[in-house]
Design goal:
This protein has two domains: 140 residues, Rossmann fold; 64 residues. Helices cover 42% and strands 12% of the residues. Strands 3-2-1-4-5-6 form a six-stranded parallel β-sheet, with helices on both faces. Strand 4, helix 8 and strand 5 form a beta-alpha-beta unit. Helix 1 packs antiparallel against helix 4. The radius of gyration is 16 Å and the shape is globular. It starts with a strand and ends in a 10-residue tail after the last strand.
Length: 211
Amino acid sequence: MRFKAVLFDWDGTLYDSIDTSFKIYGELFKKYANLNLTCDYFRETFIVNYHKYYAMHGIPENKWEEVDNHWLKRFHEMEGEIHLFAGVKEMLKEIYEKKIRIGLVSNGTGGRIKKEMRKNVIYDYFTAVITDDEIKDFKPNPIGVQEALKAIKVEASDALYVGDMLEDVQAGKNAGTSTAAVTWGAHSLERLRPAKPDYILNSVPELLKFL
């Protein structure tokens, strides 16, 4: 067995929420920054630290909480359209049955993510779930990955972190784990490749052959 633990990002990695997020950010940036956001531009520029992303586009700090609340409200209204990526549940079940520990590390809202995990009947596969309930520092800061490893009692050298964004790869490397970048999420392959992930995954089942 190559790894004792696999840690995942949530949005854009396990949960097919990027198109919905883009639609909502498009609405918000039109309202708060008078900008027309295109999908290609979003994929090439979006960063994990969404407050910094607001600032980059001229949304003042005194509006950030309002924008966050608007985003969550719209996301909840649209969440019936969002599902796990095809094959995720089966992949998690197989990893779990291999006795490999599973963790989640996301800068997303804890209440939302845990609700989505339970709704999709995958929460019990996870030994650790680290969200903004537990950490406030954005990736590539490795603290979320480190906290997950501490909770599941696995050394970084025995773990793989899987994510869809440049900062996911950087956070895993900063924590000392192996890293895998998925090509179906927020960042394009061209944006992910310079981070030099150990593995590049083009489909959900592909991960299993590296475990």
